Amino acid sequence: MHTEYLFADQPLQLARAAQLLIEGKLVAVPTETVYGLAADASNPEAVARIFKAKGRPANHPLIVHIAEPEHMHRWAEQIPASAFALASHFWPGPLTLLLKKAAHVDSCVTGGEPNIALRMPTHPVMQNLLRMTELGLAAPSANPYQQLSPTQATHVAKGLSGKIAAILDGGSCQLGLESTIVDLTQSQPRILRAGPITADAIAQCLGQPVAAPQRHEVAISGNKKQHYQPRKPLHIFATDELMQQIKRSSQRIAVVFYSQAIQSASNTIENLSGSTPIYRAASSNKSLYAQALYSTLHELDALDIDAIWMEQPPQSTEWNDVNDRLARAATKDDGK
Ligand code: TXA
Ligand code: MG
Predict the structure, then answer these.
(1) 168-200 burial string, b = 16+ CB within 10 Å, else e?
(2) Is the pTM of this model over 0.85?
(3) CA 205 to ligand 2 center in whole angstroms
């Protein structure tokens, strides 16, 4: 299949993307979190194409993106007041609400689950597409199953070119990590996936405690232990251990760090191979760190190296989403 490469700032090309979506085709689209692989959520054949293009098992549910909070009624029923409170506070934005699926909605989009995940995105391109198509758009991250999420159109092209109708280039994603998912189907709201909106912010908005399990046990895509994976082995080390490991290593490694300690040491640490590691400085500001994380990993993954080593980020709750993604991106063969 030829994949059209379209630019979102060209009105005719944006219209072309909308047309393809209306025809039931797949278009990779920018959102404020990561690029999504969009299709008409009400068209089972279009939804099936998403699973096929990603190589994703059909029982892994998709998020449906909607143009406005009122559209929750088109997809969900028995919607609790908390959903409207969160929608008016955080939408449009990086928050996905898990609600009871409306009976008429085909369960292919929810992977057979009785609940449906809804999000109103803030990215102007995605908002335009939702308005132009008048559709709900199912959109998982636009990457092959279990691989790194894309934050630039070129990342999408690497993984899905030839498998989808079009890629709509809208520049780099501002946030760089997937939305927070909160389950509102039980009496106590519960975080299913950590994201840019913290459990504390949600609890504060609702005036009610929110369960935020450190380890998400639900065995669905995105909550799988192995996910968001680069092809190169990825290991996470605490700062001191990282320095020791670099000294001992005879591998060609890329090191992603954020602390002053590693910055200062990076010029002087020698390792056994005599080869100097490639160093990438990440920000110590969480939002900036998150924004650059996937694109740094995409870049390093393409280099001729043996492994990617990450300095373990701070363990405070603010960094929950980053730590969650890194734990899943890490190679699991050494018990780390
Ligand atoms: O920021 C985001 O959420 C991005 C952009 C494109 O909007 N989308 C995204 O989709 O990350 P995806 O498919 O890569 O991850 C969505 C996750 C699923 O893997 C699953 O864990 C959860 O949302 N999910 C979706 N529908 C669900 C449902 N009905 N029940 C339980 N979990 C669900
Ligand atoms: Mg994903």
Answers:
(1) bbbeebbbbbbbbbbbbbeeebbbbbbbbbbbe
(2) yes
(3) 27
